[in-house]
Design brief:
With about 475 residues, this protein is mostly helical. Helices cover about 70% and strands about 5% of the residues.
Length: about 475
């Protein structure tokens, strides 16, 4: 009970009604702390970079294909590999299950606020990944390391090292208890159970509860697979992700396109539902404001989970890219956010809204599964199987990517002690192993808490170092012949 109370209070502090603004007529706007930090920071970065996410949109792909200019021969990842690793951590539960949580709690309008979070988040992502390359360092063994902990310490000064360590500590927690393990493996096993044993016919009694054997078997197999890859380090992680992510992303997009193309006439209505819900137009007069705020809160929270803008995770992979151009790396990172939320999340959300499965009492992956069954022109079992396979592989690569992120945070905390890092890998595998036996609500609450706690130090640094972002952007634009 003490642990549960602590979790609830921490969640309420970060995502509850933190600021109360009275309005005429006796109504009140209640704003959570993270909304007050993330959205203004994204707007601030957007203004300071002069809406770079709009004017440089065509240049993002060119930056990905641009030849890297680097003097770091010990670089870990190519620009494409770094993008794939960071995308691998985002294209998973955030797209297929996180959006379900947003729609279920905040209504269809939550998808609109996910778009808003993604738009301003693109500028945030650009800024943090630019800074990661600007302030990265080379370890004694020659590999490049970087991320918010280094641009806090080196950019803001050593007197702020305590803030860098706070970020690194919560980064380890996010990987071990949040996005990296519990949410991903829990979603995988739920998807497997939904397909193979939806009625829980074959069960085993464990930890005071009955679990389907499919959950147990899937959990053990995934734990073994994670162990085989994670023990091999970043090179093996990037190699696996480089094969799995592009293939599964294309496969998933094709499947959802089939849904949208076979329901073209319903797409305008789905967009209308999303917009009306986002602004409370579908709620009764007295509850309109509450509907808007709920949609805003859930949409932004899940938007952060999906694209991780402002969280400080993507800069860790960006820093390892083979480039000495901070601006180039920032543009490539923006492309990842665009792919993740604007493309994949929107397609998933539209499919769910068209099917109307977000408000019929289902939970988690069952919502997306039902939507696929109702809208795909295939037998229900085949539709469920397609989603299950996509979910398993997406979540698997997310687990791998977050191991890399959290290892780098731990490496900073332990001053590069590789024995500590190798020991942590076994803790990470253990967290994956126990993840299937946690409840869905507990998993998402813990993930939201650590997301928020990790974001706060990073957001402080982004504001403090915004001048550096502006100057480095001017240098990059001049180099590629663009007007600043």
């Amino acid at each position: 009970n003490t642990i549960i109370n602590l979790i609830e209070k921490t969640y309420y502090f970060l995502w509850g009604d933190w600021i109360h603004l009275p309005l005429p007529g006796g109504t009140t706007i209640n704003l959570p702390l993270l909304v007050l930090l993330l959205v203004p920071t994204g707007i601030f970065c957007t203004i300071r970079t002069r809406f770079l996410q709009i004017r440089m949109l065509p240049d993002m792909l060119r930056a990905l294909l641009e030849k890297a200019e680097t003097g770091h021969k010990g670089g870990s990842l190519s620009a494409l590999q770094a993008l794939i690793v960071s995308t691998a951590t985002r294209v998973g539960m955030g797209n297929l299950v996180g959006i379900v949580a947003a729609l279920s709690a905040g209504g269809a309008g939550a998808l609109f606020w996910m778009w808003v979070a993604a738009f301003v988040g693109m500028a945030t992502k650009y800024s943090e990944c630019l800074l990661a390359v600007k302030y990265r360092t080379v370890a004694e063994d020659g590999h490049i390391v970087g991320g918010p902990f280094y641009y806090i310490e080196k950019g803001m000064g050593t007197k702020w090292r305590w803030l860098a360590k706070i970020f690194a500590f919560f980064g380890v927690c996010v990987g071990l208890f949040g996005i990296g393990t519990f949410t991903q493996i829990n979603g995988i096993t739920n998807a497997v159970q939904t397909f193979f044993d939806p009625d829980k016919t074959w069960t085993v009694h464990m930890f005071g509860m009955d679990y389907s054997w499919t959950v147990v078997i899937a959990g053990v197999l995934l734990s073994i697979c994670v162990a085989l890859v994670v023990i091999g380090g970043i090179k093996r992680i990037s190699s696996v992700s480089q094969v799995v992510v592009p293939f599964m992303a294309v496969a998933y997009v094709v499947v959802v396109l089939i849904i949208l193309l076979t329901h073209l006439g319903e797409i305008p209505g789905a967009f209308r539902t999303i917009i009306e819900s986002a602004f409370g137009l579908r709620a009764a007069a007295g509850g309109a404001l509450g509907a808007v705020l709920m949609a805003m809160q859930k949409g932004i929270a899940r938007g952060i989970f999906s694209n991780e803008a402002g969280l400080g995770s993507a800069p860790i992979a960006a820093a390892a890219a083979l480039t000495d151009s901070p601006g180039q790396r920032g543009l490539i990172s923006m492309l990842g956010t665009f792919i993740d939320t604007i493309v994949i999340c929107t397609m998933t959300g539209l499919s769910i809204v068209i099917a109307g499965t977000w408000n019929i009492g289902l939970e988690g992956v069952a919502v997306t599964t039902k939507a696929f069954q109702m809208t795909l022109p295939f037998p229900e079992q085949f539709s469920s199987f397609i989603l299950m396979i996509c979910l398993v592989f997406f979540a698997f690569t997310t687990i791998l990517g977050w191991d890399y992120y959290s290892e780098k945070c731990l490496e900073y905390l332990s001053n590069g002690n590789q024995k500590v890092v190798k020991g942590y890998r076994w803790l990470y595998i253990l967290a994956v192993f126990i993840g299937p036996y946690m409840t869905v609500s507990a998993v998402w609450t813990i993930a939201d808490i650590f997301n928020g706690l990790m974001a706060i130090p990073n957001l402080i640094a982004l504001v403090a170092l915004s001048g550096v972002v502006v100057s480095e952007t001017k240098i990059y634009l001049k180099r590629i012949g663009k007007v600043s």
